[in-house]
Design a protein that fits this description.
Chain B: InterPro entries: MetI-like (IPR000515), MetI-like_sf (IPR035906). Chain B: Pfam families: BPD_transp_1. The complex is a heterodimer of chains A (324) and B (316). Chain A contains 14 helices and no strands. Chain A is mainly alpha-helical and 324 residues long. Chain A is globular and about 70 Å long. Chain A starts with 8 loop residues before the first helix and ends with a helix. With 316 residues, chain B is mostly helical. Chain B folds into 2 domains: 2-80, no CATH class; 91-310, Orthogonal Bundle (MetI-like fold). Helices cover 72% and strands 2% of the residues of chain B. In chain B, strand 1 and strand 2 form a beta hairpin. In chain B, helix 4 (75-82) packs across helix 14 (280-300) and helix 8 (176-201) runs antiparallel to helix 11. The chains are: A mainly alpha (324), B mainly alpha (316). Chains A and B meet through helix 1, helix 2, helix 4, helix 5 and helix 6 of A and helix 1, helix 2, helix 3, helix 5 and helix 6 of B.
């Protein structure tokens, strides 16, 4: 039972090596920059400062992205060209089509639900006495890993057969109102919805914070004027609040769409992609790293890239405008 | 005070039926807000409470029965952290791995992104705009696009037309952490450079000009003027990167493997959820251990986190 701390020492040594390497890199860059002669054109300085980052970006992102694109046109063992076979597989084979369908459901529902919950909550707690506590409570799941959240919710969904005491909260509620306990995560197609709940639970705090900040930015005169004109709370929400914070709503929708398309951890932790719940990122991992089908994995990654591309381009344009 | 003033102001200007409507909606609104708050906290509370209950109780009764029969124990934590049999969590090893992975994976991108952002924001050289746009555009590439080739870069090296350009790294044991640091650093750079560049380019140009007239080199300007001024931005990026690395599963799974030698806690938890999905006494305690550290950091630095969110620092 006793834990052997001595066995862990090599790791800590490795950590020291890592930190030391970090200090050396920083020191070398700074010393080189200090030594380089000051001129009007600073390309020497620029090279020294940019080189480490650009080198890593090249090795870690640019070259791999190109290679992945090439791999997607090759067979599983990457030995011969197979043209569009991997893509044909993705759009025709039932198991792959299920994956695409699930991803579609995810990306349609998550941004919508996250934004709605976050918006409603932000409006409701706005300018109340417990606003900051109320927001913190919903915000906390943002700090939890998707894996941790997956376990928290597996526990909520836990199943015991009807004659036993339930240990999962949801089944307890079902039993309390006279229903039969269900295996929530094992019955398609609704199990995907129960996974989506987890994502919404994690991300709603993000929407709350961003939208709440936007709501606070609405000029007080507009709000007062609407109240004086006798606007009801609902009219207020749809005619004043919502139009004023449109940009922030779009930001949340866009960020959530991208995050959802790349979602991996929740599915992996809660069902492992079984029972028809797999999504693109999970299937990509399975094909490339578990079944050794590099070609199919690469094709899924490329497809993911193509899906994300227009949304990110839109997001980046928004960000650049905001930064200006 | 302000709420009171508002209420009286409203009472004066609105008619009676409107007042009733406002109050009614106020009550429904509070009820809805409370329901949401309860829904959002109960699952975590249930997990925490369960992790402190004795094993046989966790497995046979719901955590809500605790209030009828309160029994608490730390045995689950002792077992999951320090147990050495393969069926126990061995979580302590994975916890150490998570720390070893996280510290350099935050430090490296922070420094490299700061250097690059300074160069792109304040050094006059040809092609600056193009490099910035290029780095910027890399935010588009999902990390799934680079996993397979980057892993083979480490395990097989680079070979083009039979020509070995770089050798296989063959990292074993603790040295495997290097490839995890490497991967995390690469994936963090586009967003990091973008964020820090935004903050740095907003600094007043006269400040740099004055320093240069006084004979300060770029190294000195960076160290003495720019970095202290963008400290809040550095803190924001650091906390985001910390949460990202600590909570990451995919990169850990692929680059750190699945053994106690180098895998982070998230990988272990995912394993346990898969193979020991009903060992709730270990899962609950293990999950809580992994959650409590980012939660603490998060709560103590929430200000920077919120500022970062509003500045758009969410990994796309």
């Amino acid at each position: 039972m006793d834990f052997d701390f001595a066995a862990e020492q090599p790791k800590l040594v490795q950590l020291l090596i890592g930190v030391a390497a970090f200090l050396v890199v920083v020191a070398v860059v700074l010393i080189l920059v200090d030594r380089a002669p000051m001129r009007r054109r600073a390309w020497i300085h620029a090279t020294i400062l940019l080189l480490p980052a650009l080198l890593l970006l090249g090795i870690g992102l640019v070259i791999p992205a190109i290679r992945t694109t090439l791999l997607s046109f090759m067979s599983g063992d990457s030995r011969q060209w197979v043209g569009l076979d991997n893509y044909a597989w993705m759009f025709t084979q039932p198991e792959a089509v299920t994956v695409l369908r699930n991803t579609l459901v995810w990306v349609l529902l998550v941004p919508l639900l996250v934004t709605s919950v976050g918006l409603v909550y932000a409006v409701l707690v706005d300018r109340t006495r417990f606003e900051s506590i109320a927001k913190s409570l919903v915000f906390l799941p943002m700090a939890i890993s998707f894996v941790g959240a997956g376990i928290i919710w597996r526990f909520v969904y836990a199943y015991r057969s009807g004659d036993q005491d339930q240990i999962g909260l949801l089944n307890q509620l079902v039993v309390a109102v006279g229903g039969e306990p269900q295996q929530w995560l094992q019955d398609p197609p609704f199990n995907t919805l129960f996974l989506i709940v987890v994502m919404v639970w994690i991300q709603a705090g993000f929407a709350t914070v961003v939208l709440s900040a936007a709501i606070k930015g609405i000029p007080a005169e507009i709000v007062e004027a609407a109240k004086l004109d006798g606007a009801s709370p609902l009219q207020m929400f749809f005619r004043v609040t919502l139009p004023s914070i449109r940009t922030a709503v779009v930001v949340v929708l866009v960020t959530q769409s991208i995050g959802t398309l790349k979602l991996f951890d929740i599915v992996r932790t809660m069902t492992g992609g079984q029972f028809d719940t797999s999504v693109i990122a999970n299937e990509m991992y399975n094909q490339a790293f578990r079944y050794g089908e590099t070609g199919k994995g690469a094709a899924l990654a490329v497809f993911l890239f193509v899906l994300v591309l227009p949304i990110v381009v839109y997001q980046i344009r928004q960000r650049r405008e905001a930064a200006r | 005070m302000t709420t009171l003033a508002q209420t009286t102001a409203r009472a004066k200007t609105t008619t009676a039926p409107q007042r009733v409507r406002w109050r009614l909606s106020g009550r429904i609104a509070s009820a809805v807000a409370i329901v949401i708050a309860v829904l959002w906290t109960t699952p975590t509370f249930g997990l925490l409470l369960s992790s402190l209950r004795p094993e046989d109780q966790i497995k046979t009764t719901g955590w809500w029965t605790f209030f009828a029969d309160p029994q608490l124990t730390l045995e689950n934590y002792r077992e999951v952290l320090f147990g050495t049999s393969s069926s126990s969590g061995q979580m302590m090893s994975f916890l150490i791995n998570s720390v070893v992975i996280t510290v350099p994976s935050v430090l490296f991108p922070l420094a490299l992104a700061a250097f690059a952002a300074y160069a792109l924001a304040w050094l006059p050289f040809r092609g600056r705009e193009w490099i910035y746009i290029g780095v910027f555009a890399l935010q588009i590439v999902p990390l799934q696009m680079s996993l397979v080739p980057l892993l083979s870069f480490f395990s097989q090296g680079v070979e083009i037309f039979g020509l070995q350009l770089s050798p296989a790294w063959n990292l074993e044991g603790p040295a495997r952490f290097i490839q995890v640091w490497f991967a995390h650093t690469c994936f963090a750079l586009p967003l990091g450079i973008f964020l820090l560049h935004n903050f740095m380019s907003e600094l007043p140009g006269e400040l740099m000009e004055a320093a240069r007239v006084d004979g300060a080199s770029h190294g000195v300007i960076l160290r003495k003027i720019v970095l202290p001024l963008v400290l809040p931005a550095l803190a924001t990026f650091a906390i985001f990167q910390f949460l990202w690395v600590w909570n990451d599963l995919l990169v850990g799974l692929i680059f750190a493997g699945g053994t106690p030698d180098s895998a982070p806690m998230t990988v272990r938890l995912a394993q346990m959820a898969g193979t020991r999905g009903n060992e709730w006494q270990r899962l609950t305690a293990g999950a809580f251990v992994s959650v409590i550290i980012p939660l603490t950091v998060f709560l103590s630095m929430q200000r920077y986190f919120v500022r970062g969110l509003l500045a758009g620092s969410v990994k796309g």
